[in-house]
Amino acid sequence: MKRWMVATSCLVLIGVVGAGSIADPGSRGVDWEKVKFRVETQGWAKSIVSGMKANVTTTQSRYAEPPLGESGWFHDYYCPKDARRLVFDWQKPTEHRCEGCGTVYRGSPYDEVWRAAVHDAIISAIGSAAVVYRITGEMEYMQYAREKLLWYAEHYDQYPPHGKHAGKGRIGAQSLDEATQTVELAQAYWDICPDLSPADRTTIAEKMLIPAARFIHSQTRTIHNIHSWHNAAVGLVGFAVGDKELVQAAIEGPAGLNAQITKGIQDDGFWYEGSIGYHFYTISSMEPLVLAARAQKYPIADMDRFLRLYSAPLALAFDDGQFPANNDGWGGMNLLNLPQYYEVASAVEPQSEFLGLLGRAYKDRKRTAVAALLYGPDVIAISEAFVPESNLLKESGIAILRKDKTNAYLKFGPHGGGHDHNDRLNLILYHDGHVIVPDLGTSGYGIPLNGQWFRSAAAHNLLIVDGKKQANCGGELGEFAAERVSASVSKAFEGVTIRREIGLIDNGIEDRVGAESDKEHTYDLIYHVRGTLELCSVVTQAAEPLKGDGYPMLKNLQKGKAEGTCEASFKLRDTAGQLVLRLESDRPYEVFTGTCPDNPADKTMAFVMVRSTGKETSWKNRIVVQP
After folding, report:
1. Which residue among 330, 411, 589, 616 is the one 20 to 30 A from 90 at the CA level?
2. 235-254 average pLDDT score
3. What pLDDT is recorded for position 9?
4. What is the pLDDT of residue 188?
5. Domains of the chain
6. What's the CA gap between 365 and 377, in Å, rounded?
7. How far is CA 88 from CA 10, 85, 603, in A?
């Protein structure tokens, strides 16, 4: 495309790409007249606009202009001692404090992360201002969005490419950050484009948006959440400035949107990386490009498969909406706190399950998301909690068993790449609103604890062979029924086949674990409990530190020997009651107990590990929650 075309009207530009003219040349999939009517007639919609205005006002009062200099990686912004995210006073950019232990950090890399946070705040305010202007016509918001877009355009070449982790950024610390920021900047430009002068459009497009899109696209090469964000940035810029080549690259390229959908989404709807956090992060990357493409009548290859992304979490969530923090997941995520995604899903395809989720989510909360304002349905029927049932995400290799107050999770699926924790046959147990036998998920990737503990073998509830981490591999499903699931893995450890079968019982599970090999091995079966050990009679003496992947994080070690059966009882930490673990094996074994870090790591929990040696091992255990 000839660059001089950027200076013409938005309608002409968009017409170059679209399949004909559209009613509103500034629309990226938003019916602005409908949105205006909502704000005039619906209190919740008016409140969202007030919140966006406040975002602009607050940011404007804090920062006259964006900072120059390199930005930092947010995963470095964690306390190395307890894995808590650091915080800062917006007026004290050189002080970075841990709210857990109180330590204040200064200098690099923390100052660079502060710059990244300031960019995010300003770019968010630009987006808010553009939306507010489109709805209200208030010029002060137009002026803020215009001035800041022009500032970034005039200074973009002063930000050199930099980054040590996932690609290079200019304003951002990596290509991912550059892409997420460019999506917001492109949307803001698109929103106010009809009222910008030709000169302003040329400056913003040619000095920032197009160079950013090309810089980002040059780093797009594979199926991954980061590269999906690349596509969103490139495609949104292409639509906004009328560059057909950018749009085609973002949607139809070898790693474009269509490829991400067809290759990255499993048949069961779960994103292949196997983390619920990255699942929704990928949805966030695809949504803006899908909405814009639909508005421009640009075809998407497999919309049915895209919509499965919204269905999979409904099957994965525990009964109160909590998600397992599997792989590089983040504790505390809850389906009912994420209605913004289903506002968009309902706009694309008003399926009953999407509308039902919105009805559940808004039973006890107000509609506050911008997505609700711009895309959501006019009316939502409030509904009660869903009727729980066991679910199998077969291609992803995850089973969720449900009975009364108990949910049990078993993982056996294919390896998910760099965010996988190599934990086939890992167990998570949920009971009555709480995860009591947890997967800890992850912390900031930049601190040592992430590799030393959160991603280690010893941080998961599984069978460990010779103290080692599993190889990159997948397992196989045995059988699945409403109250029972079995699976195996034969490539996690060379020459060893491991099997696990979980069955639901009243207030708990039966857990059968076994392994066999032609060679002698040390088999460690470990359980973590969010609570304190009250009794384990066979444990009689202190133990020396243990060696293995993550084992140095196991503290306050005690040990003992047992044959047949033994029991360990725990007082639960986050809820009333007691967990009783009954262990049973047909061969002698050692028992180790102690404490280990939770997430964040300034919280502790208890563990029990049973060890046997030989060519095979076999366990028939029970976990029961008692009042």
Report:
1. 330
2. 97
3. 35
4. 97
5. 391-626 (2.70.98.70)
6. 16
7. 41, 10, 22
510 and 582 Cβ atoms separated by less than 8 Å: no
CA dihedral 75, 78, 81, 82 (to 10 degrees): -100
Cα 592 to chain centroid distance, Å, stands at 34
Contact partners, residue 218, CB within 8 Å, separation at least 6: none
**pLDDT surpassing 70 at residue 267:** yes
Closest CA to 527 of 428, 603, 430: 428
DSSP letter for 75, please. Answer: G
Name the nearest CA neighbour of 370 among 151, 237, 188: 188
Rounded-to-10 torsion of CA 326, 327, 331, 332: -60
Q: Is 603 left (phi over 0), alpha (psi -120 to 50) or beta?
A: beta
Q: What is the band of 25 on the pLDDT scale with cuts at 50, 70, 90?
A: low
pLDDT of residue 390 exceeding 50, the answer is yes
> By the 8 A CB rule, do 557 and 543 touch?
yes
The pLDDT value recorded for residue 515 is 99
pLDDT 10s digits, 302-344:
999 999 999 999 999 999 999 999 999 988 899 999 999 999 9
Angle in degrees, CA 210, 215, 219, rounded to 5 = 140
With a cut of 70, say whether residue 441 has pLDDT above it. Answer: yes
How many CB atoms sit inside 10 A of residue 184's CB?
A: 20
**CB of 394 within 8 A of CB of 477?**
yes
Token pair listed for 275: 């983390």
Q: What is the token pair recorded at 327?
A: 């792989």
Q: Are 376 and 367 in contact (CB under 8 A)?
A: yes
Backbone dihedral angles phi then psi of residue 51, each to the nearest 5 degrees: -65, -40
Q: What was the pLDDT predicted at 368?
A: 97
pTM confidence score: 0.93
How high is the pLDDT of residue 165? 84
Is residue 74 over pLDDT 90?
A: no
- The tokens of 304 are what? 């049915």
The 10 Å CB-count burial string (b at 16+, else e) for 334-372 is: ebbebbbbbbbbbbbeeeeebbbbbbbbbeeeebebbbb
Length of the chain: 627
Encoded tokens for 622 = 């029970």
pLDDT digit string, tens, across residues 466-481: 999 999 999 999 999 9
**Residues whose CB is less than 8 angstroms from the CB of residue 88 and which lie 6 or more positions away in sequence, other chains included:** 95, 96, 97, 114, 117
Rounded to whole angstroms, how far apart are CA atoms 423 and 416?
11
Residue 46, exposed/middle/buried by CB under 10 A (0-12, 13-18, 19+)?
middle
d(CA 172, CA 165): 12
**CA-CA-CA-CA torsion sign (40, 46, 52, 54):** positive
Q: What is the pLDDT of residues 445-468, one digit of tens each?
A: 989 999 999 999 999 999 999 999
Give me the torsion for CA of 56, 62, 63, 69, rounded to 10°: -120
- Concatenated DSSP letters for 501-515? EEEEETTEEEEEEEE
